[in-house]
């Protein structure tokens, strides 16, 4: 596989940080907001989204679709090992995490990357490459119980370049109740769940909690979906290599770019149920009320405690 530095993408360089990169205020388009950055600033949000929708992927490409802070880097590492048929950590750099939001502008430069290629994206289904969706190319959709996910978003975003120094209560009011980042978690989840159910796209739904509690059967399901060979011993080795402690120690963190000290803050606890340490009783009741209304026609269940 080609080295990450062979591809001319400079968003991970220190010069970007020196130039005053910020990710907030978020960029708004209609009812959706998006994390700001150099590509959106350079191209404008509408052009940026159009570029993503018109990307021409290959039938061998796998798209990992995740709501932010749902276990993206963890699942990416597992898929990388399955696709490469090895248990070597993917430490080659930011491009080898292959965020489609970045590499969409350099697809012609990625021809030398061995197939099958793995791309990751946080955007909702209606912003994904039309070519990929309509042709039934493979997508793995990873989601997580929204309470733990929101806590993980709060601790991850806190202190990042440009982000207000919100308290948890302020974050609850400004982010959780508004729920408009990338179009909102509720919209994201309903859209993917519906597409997976009625099979308008080739989607394998995976839950963070299942990957945590039932790693063997969940990884085997992913391996079968992407048509890669596996043995029980190979899957067990992946589980060991991708344990939380091992991933935290070895996983390349491309998000260092948005930390003022360029420190890795990607992995914190990786547990189910930490939301109980953050949500007040009133906040929990308010969220449950909103969830019941927003998800009344969406048949999906999440695990909220281990």
UniProtKB/TrEMBL annotation:
SUPFAM superfamilies: P-loop containing nucleoside triphosphate hydrolases. Gene3D superfamilies: P-loop containing nucleotide triphosphate hydrolases (3.40.50.300). GO terms for molecular function: sulfotransferase activity. Residues 59-298 form the Sulfotransferase domain. Keywords: Transferase. It holds the Pfam family Sulfotransfer_1. PANTHER family: SULFOTRANSFERASE SULT. Belongs to the sulfotransferase 1 family. This is Sulfotransferase domain-containing protein.
